Amino acid sequence: MYLEVYGDTLCALVSAAAMASTGHQVTLHVSPGSVANTLDSDEFTLREPGLASLMLEQKRAGRLVVAPLNVLPDSRCTVLWLALSPDALELAHRLVEGLPADIDPEFLVVNQSTFPVGSTEALQQTLLNRPGADSRFGAVVSVPDLLTEGAALTGFTRPNHWLVGADMPWASRLVAELLRPFNRRRDGIMQMRPREAEFTKLAINGMLATRLSYMNDMANLADSLDVDIERVRQGMGADTRIGEAYLYPGCGFGGLSFSRDVMSLASTLQHSGLQAQLLEEVLQINERQKETLFRKLWRHYDTQLEGRRVAIWGVAFKPESARIDNAPALKLIEALWAQGVQVHVHDPRALPALQAWAGTRADLVLHDDPYAAAAGADALMLVTEWKSYWSPDFTRLKAEMATPLLLDGRNVWDPDFMKRSGFVYHGIGRR
Fold this sequence. Notes:
Elements: E1 2-6, H1 10-21, E2 25-30, H2 51-60, E3 64-68, E4 79-82, H3 89-97, E5 108-111, H4 119-128, E6 139-142, H5 152-157, E7 162-165, H6 169-179, E8 189-192, H7 194-225, H8 229-237, H9 256-271, H10 277-289, H11 292-300, E9 309-313, H12 328-338, E10 342-346, H13 351-358, E11 364-367, H14 370-374, E12 379-382, H15 394-400, E13 405-408, H16 415-420, E14 424-426
Parallel strand pairs: 1-2, 1-4, 2-3, 4-5, 5-6, 7-8, 9-10, 9-12, 10-11, 12-13, 13-14
């Protein structure tokens, strides 16, 4: 098939590369500043594991072509794949409206963009209302983006499940054919109406965010009750009614799409005349939790923080990402600056993004080496749980630091081992 994929999102890049790898002819439409335009140079900055090599392989094979975002689909196009940013709904309608009147009877528009619930049905009406269009031809289906940054390519090619929202049986069958190469282990396609698929995606992220915020509340309570939250977490996860996923307390979650989906769900509830108290509280807990390491530092030094030097390991909103969208480290850094603290930061990938966010200032120093960041520090805060931080040279680390104080925002280090190694250790709900 000939697929035209539109969007600068990670979802668009992954979908285009994966579809091309199965033999389809794919044109990926992106804006001028997209990293997709830098595939053949050393400027490709997207560090999603495996994605750059697959895109370059498909481009060299001639199955993947990169084109401008404002170019309409080619006449050979049989599938219009929309993986646009949430603020591009108007563009989505323009693309659908610009389709020829004489499209194939089974022309398919796949909406993978995170638009408000009901957007797929609205796009279907735009498709039907084109001048001279036959109302029997074409369908818009919803295939929500369920990808996780850092494992997006694996999430597309070896998914746990797919949500497919379609009102027409032939459209459901055609989507199943498109996804067949990634649906062989078992049939993971879940069929539903378009608005049900859109809502399910929001509801999933709302539930995950709720679990995270609940565990953060429990961790804070564990601190006051002299309880180790790690033992509590294991006990909860062993209950099959609960399970282990998203029960890890920490210093807050970030990520643009995750937080945005929760806010979108809360907004949907409010616009429906319902209260969104639970989701609003989830978001408020998360914002408070981003300051938990600062509060521990504040108490340890009895509020005397001015002039101190603090090292931060990890500013990306999650491991394997170079992005800092809504990252807990940002609020933490701002709180430290407000107290006159000099902040020294290391991150394997996100330093350019942090530099762009903060600009040049004397109280922020970026380091390519984690031990250099910790040298002379009055405290070290672990904020993003990159694997390279899990087992550092603790003897060297203790020798480098001015004060061996560790504030573990992800509970990756063992408290007893840290204390035996000569550190003062504070985790999230750890005894």
